[in-house]
Every structure is written in C-alpha cells, then in structure tokens.
Amino acid sequence: MNDTRPLTETNRHDRSTISIARLQPKITANPIEVAIADWQIIKQRDPAARNWLEILFCYPGFQAICCYRLCHWLYGLGVPFLPRIIANLTRFFTGIEIHPGATIGKGVFIDHGTGVVIGETAIIGDGVVIYQGVTLGGTGKETGKRHPTLGNNVLVGAGAKILGNIQIGDRTNIGAGSVVLRDIPSDCTVVGIPGRVIRNGSRTIDPTQNLEYLPDLEAEVISKLFDRIKSLEQQVRDLDDRLHPPIEGELKTSHLRDVTETDREIEDFLYGAGI
C-alpha cells in the first residue's frame, strides 16, 4: 500500500534516503546495459525512430543522456572541472542541461528536449519520460539534497516544473505546464499551478501513452462557469417576463437576441479552444 501521509522534516529525510538507496543500485548497473536500455526505450516509445542511426544523430535527448553518463562517471571519480565543461558543451549542442551530479536511471527518454534542466541532486528512476521545457530544480540557495526525486515510470509533461527536495512516486503522471512543490504518492495524476492530484490510483495510465488522457481543470472550470451564466440569464429572462407587460415584447426580443448572439459567440470561441 502506498504511504500518502504528509511528510514532516524528519520523515522527508528518511524518504529521501530510501529513494536514493532504492534507485542507486540500478543506476550503477553495467554501462553497456544502461546504454542499450536508453536506446531501446526510444524505439519502444517513439514511432518516428526508424533506426539506430536516426536515434544516434537526430535525437538530442539520447545524445544528452549519453554525454551525461560520461560526465557523471567523471564526476563520481572526483575529476574537477572537466565534467562541467562537457555538460556545458552538451547544453550548447542539445539545449538540454543536466548537472553531472544528478542521478539518472536506465531507460530514461527525454523527448524533444529543448529547455530541459535537471539539477545537481535530482534523482530519476528507470523508465521515466521527460518532455521539452521540464525543470527539476531547487527552490532557493539551500545546500544538500535540494532537487526532486522521481520514481520509476514517471511521465513529466512539457513545461512542467518540479521544484525542491520532494518525492514523486512510481507511475505518476505530471501534466504539461504543472508546477509541483510537494510530495506526490505513486499512481497519481497531477495538473495545474500549483500541482493538484486529480487522480490517485483509481486508474493507472501507461506512461508510454500521450498526454491526451490528462484532464484540463481550467477548461472544465471555464465551461462550468459559462453554463452557470447561461442558467442565470434564463432566470433573469423568466423574472423579466413576469415583471413587464407584453407591450414591451419587441424591446425584450431585441435584448434577448443580443444576449443569444453573444452567448453563441462565446460558445464558438470555447469550442474552438477545445473547451
């Protein structure tokens, strides 16, 4: 059973330690095995990947991960300066910034990749999918563990920001543009600013699927507000009919026609926006 209790400062440290201990053995696996997993995950999840040459030369996410593996190895050996230089060159050529100190599991897919930032103490499990514009960052100038920990098979949508020393559980989906500032249990779906859990274990979404299954809370709220406005307008019409004599029918009809036209224009706009 997943532990969904709020984290105190004490058990936050305990959870972080558990996450590091759980993920570290996989991340220090055979480098050839890791490289193969990184390549295979692209073949499995991107139908546009035709062959290994395309993946090697045309996928900046794969290139950035490969360079990160080298930088992380040098960083672990205590080699000064060189890992950061290689990471900086990688950012220049791919648009993806991964600190050499970050801990990343195997089979991680950075799709498109431009604008992705992964901080020094971030931990990413196996099978994670990260889209463009994602930030795994800190929230201030604190030292120590200050970046997020992502479990296995997490999906992070385009433009999402996950900030601070927080835990994201296995198989959790972070919606595009979300800002997550607190711990999220496993098997959840999170959307919005700040991030809100809108599905918790009732339905598990395969992280290899696209983001069309993530609901748009803002669109739902706008749609409900518009329905409420239409209901209130109808109440006003009914009250107006009772208070005014029929002789003013032409004026009321003209007014109602204007309101109806406005409602139709709003409905057309909302429909065009996918709401």
TrEMBL record:
Family designation: Belongs to the transferase hexapeptide repeat family.
Q: Which UniProt keywords apply?
A: Acyltransferase, Amino-acid biosynthesis, Cysteine biosynthesis, Repeat, Transferase
Question: Sorted alphabetically, which InterPro entries does this protein's record hold?
Answer: Hexapep, Hexapep_transf_CS, LbH_SAT, Ser_AcTrfase_N_sf, Ser_O-AcTrfase, Serine_acetyltransferase, Trimer_LpxA-like_sf
Query: Which terms in the GO cellular component ontology are assigned?
Result: carboxysome; cytoplasm
Q: What is its EC number?
A: 2.3.1.30
The protein's name in its UniProt record: Serine acetyltransferase
Which superkingdom, per the lineage? Answer: Bacteria
Q: Which GO biological process categories is it annotated with?
A: cysteine biosynthetic process from serine
Query: Main EC class of this protein?
Result: transferase
**Gene Ontology MF annotations:** serine O-acetyltransferase activity; structural constituent of carboxysome shell
Q: Which residues cross the membrane?
A: none
Native organism is Chamaesiphon polymorphus CCALA 037
Q: Which reaction does it catalyse?
A: L-serine + acetyl-CoA = O-acetyl-L-serine + CoA
Its pathway, per UniProt, is: Amino-acid biosynthesis; L-cysteine biosynthesis; L-cysteine from L-serine: step 1/2
What Pfam family is a match for this entry?
Hexapep
